[in-house]
Amino acid sequence: MSQPLLSIDNLHVRFARSEDEVYAVNGISFDVYENEALGIVGESGSGKSVTLMSSIGLLRENGKISSGTAHFQGKDLLKLKPRQLEDIRGRDIGVIFQDPMTSLNPIMRIGDQIMEAMLTHRYASRKEAFERTLQLMHEIGIPDPKSRFKNYPHEFSGGMRQRIMIAIALACEPQLLIADEPTTALDVTVQMQILALLQDLRRKRGMSVVMVTHDFGVATNFCDKIIVMYGGQIMEMARTDQFIRRTAHPYSIGLKRSIIEVGHRGKEILPIPGASKALTEEPVGCPFAARCSFATERCFQETPALRIYGEDHHIACHHAEEVARHAV
Amino acid sequence: MAGTVAAARSDALNQKIKNRHRSSWYQGWKRFKRNRLAVVGLVWVVLFFLAGIIGPWVAPYDYRVGDFLAINQGPSWQHIFGTDNVGHDMFSQILYSVRSALIIALGATLVSFVIGVILGLWAGLRGGLADVIIMRGVDFMMTLPGFLFALILVVLLGRGYWSLILAIGIPGWAGYARLIRSLVLGMRNGEMVEAATALGASQAHIARRYMLPNVVGSMAVSLAFGIPGDLAQIAGLSIFGMGLQPPIPSFGNMLAAAGDNILGFPWLLYFPAGIFAITLLAFLFVADGLQEAFSPKGGN
Amino acid sequence: MAVVKFIAKRLIQIIITLILVMTVSYMLMYYSPGGFMHTTVMASVLAPLQSQNPILYQQVMDQFNSRYGLNLPLWQQIAKYVWHELSFDFGNSMQNPSLSIMSQLKQTLPVSVDLAVGSVVLSVIVGVPLGIVAALKRNTWIDYVVGTVSLAGQAIPAFVLAVIMVLLFGVVFPGILPIAGWGAWKDAILPVICLSAANIGVVARYMRGSLIETLRLDYIRTAKAKGVKYWPMVMNHGVKNSLTAMITVIGPQFAFTVMGTIWVEQIFGIPGLGKVMQTAFTSFDYPLAITSVFLLGSMIMIMNLLVDIIYAFIDPRVKL
């Protein structure tokens, strides 16, 4: 395959708290290729959002990238000045967020909010931007764009607002779309519509998407490749079909089982014993070890490296083969 | 193995939580002490109270007696703050003013507070129509400045100590009533109490550990803001010619009286205006410090 | 239509409040020692008359009572009085029976309104930028200085500041700015500054808190994700949203500014409503006193109503 579009290498992120530090991301590496949809799955607090937000400079104030690189179009995003990042955000990389109810400016017309991205980047003249906004609104499924242009966010439903967020993210035709839990806050039926819309827009544009979600079903339906994260580390990374057929990591297996047991998507993943905790010390060993039924002494002392497990399939587990025997 | 580590950790955490609760007063005091302006303010406030208490004994001159041989004199060793147009010693005048200001301000704040507590409790505990009527009253009082009501009350009651305490105190109840009512409602269905009950804490324990510091803290903060407000109102009434009847010394009267000959004898204003302004600042810094240290929202 | 209904509803509320205030004031003055005859002029003229010529005294009293409607039952007096006030028929003052209250107010009220409006404008112009700077530089020395100065401005009432200003520009730096009188625009500088100190403090502190909170909201992150540059982001998404909330603070604050004018006018010798009010209260000129309370109260409440209407226009989420 050609050069990756986005290449994250050995990323470490920490958050300062009043008395201690949280190790949120601990050595993450992955590539996103052109025209590829990557799904990053994990519980809340697994570091999946932080990984992406830190690479585009949208970390919270107390977050600090302690090491790593994030190459995008030949530039290391982590070394760019804030101004240079501003030029890339919204133009080459679009972002949509979890909660459409709070992600739009309540006192700005939605049309202006869509246009703002284009005008900021001088992507289009005011007139062109206006025309393009109407076009985008039509494309994302807002009926009667001309009259809706002047409406404020509170005059739209949650699903409609998320469509507007998508229009904002796509305004400058970015090559990469980062979707941070784009359907989590929506009703199940609306979730499906939004996913279908995203899939359609992506196909038409040949755009790459990185989707962060805690919902296995959403990820496997939408994405070509899946990354499972836990404790700020990658547990398993595989092509989606491989992943579905040969789920190998005890954590992934637990996640998958929990969905089947719960019976439908959209529920928090609970049935894995124990709960994930914020890491306040430099992690040693496998982060999942304390909750893992296969864990041995080695798992607590030696961090498992991400190793090749099969074709397009990587795993970070000392006992993957043993786990596979048990699972059968 | 992992289990014992986790257990040890949670023990340490429990200890930490316990310590924090046992010393919530101490923690507050520690936070207060870190605020330098508040500490300086507190020192001044303490001095001000001292002056109010022992002032009449240490004042070098009687406030009623003027020395006609020494009128409108600048500061000197005999009269360190100078004398006014009838020969009153300004230093003594100020010492007596501190006392009159404190008596009225504390009295008025107490009157407001007592009315506020009674009405707030009534509204919060009874609910229903009583609540509606009392809260309407609160809205009504909040629409118009209390000073306006105070002016009208002074006309009715006169210009003595008691009248001023009542005139300033009576219109000031609304803020306290609202606070007390919200505390009552907060206690009835507060999340904190719910959580504590869920954890199996006894009623008395809940009251002592959680409600008391919260309630006392909020009330102390609102009283701390109330006193300088009332101090300002007293002086404001004097400026208007509706304050304490001269010759009882008061800051407001000194500010108002000196206005006429300000250019000739500015020291008649330097000291009263300066001390009064610093006092109000000191009270407010203390109040602000208390708020930061004790109110649940503060800290950051 | 909804707007009209809202305004009508609020106006009725305002009128009810005013009726209440006037009723209470009237009753307080009615029952005050000496009642309505307590007027200083009346007392000095009538007291000797009462002993020297009781018949003439009675005639004067009857005339006085019928002139001010004091021989009617109390509730009728109040009803009549409130009705007159609400229809802006204020009658004559007792102190100056030949002078209609309306004519006194016509000269003095605009002065106070000028001062109050000037103060609100100044406090927004100064307070908002201070608050923005403090929010953006939060927890730095700039923030602490702005915070402390704002608190100080709030602590010291306008009249104390006025006295300090008079000392400063009358004694320490004489001749730079006028410290008394009214006429030239320069005369307004010091009074407006004194009136604004507290407002600037309130506005700056509120703006700081509001902006810090706003900048943490999700839609700010959206703006950043769009690539909006720092200052456009702060101004268009942060400050604009904080300002809408700001308006609700300015309204009640205006009330205290109006109140403050009457003190500041005392110290700077400005012939405004404050001067009239002072004369009214100290000389027990009841009609004038109640009328000035009525005017102050209605100004404050109408200002609050205006603020609510403006707020509804600015924030699309608010429905009247």
Describe the structure.
The complex is a heterotrimer of chains A (328), B (300) and C (320). Chain A is an alpha/beta fold. Chain A has twelve helices and twelve strands. Chain B has one domain (2-293): MetI-like fold, CATH 1.10.3720.10. Helix content of chain B is 75%, strand content 0%. Chain B has helices at 2-22, 24-34, 36-58, 90-126, 128-143, 146-157, 161-169, 173-188, 191-198, 203-239, 251-258, 267-294. Chain B starts with a helix and ends in a 6-residue tail after the last helix. Chain C has helices spanning 2-31, 40-52, 54-67, 74-86, 101-136, 141-155, 158-172, 189-215, 218-225, 230-268, 273-282, 286-314. In chain C, 43% of the residues are buried. The chains are: A alpha/beta (328), B mainly alpha (300), C mainly alpha (320). Chain A binds chain B through residues 289-290, 297, 300, and chain B through 1-2, 6.
Any key phrases for this structure?
heterotrimer, A: 328 residues, alpha/beta, Rossmann fold, 2 domains, 4-stranded antiparallel β-sheet, globular, B: 300 residues
The percent range for helix content of chain A is 25-40%
Separate helix tally of chain A: 12
- Beta-strand proportion of chain A: 15-25%
Major β-sheet strand ordering of chain A: 6-7-8-3-9-10-12-11
Which sheet architecture does the biggest sheet of chain B show? none
How many alpha or pi helices of chain B?
A: 12
Enumerate the spans of chain A where pLDDT stays under 50 for 5 or more consecutive residues. 265-270
From N to C, what is the helix and strand string of chain B?
HHHHHHHHHHHH
What is the end-to-end distance of chain A?
33 Å
- Low-pLDDT parts of chain B are none
Look up the CATH topology of chain B: MetI-like fold
CATH homology-level superfamily of chain B:
MetI-like
What oligomeric state do these chains adopt? heterotrimer
Shape of chain A: globular
Q: How much strand content do the residues of chain B show?
A: under 5%
Indicate the CATH architecture of the largest domain in chain A.
Answer: 3-Layer(aba) Sandwich
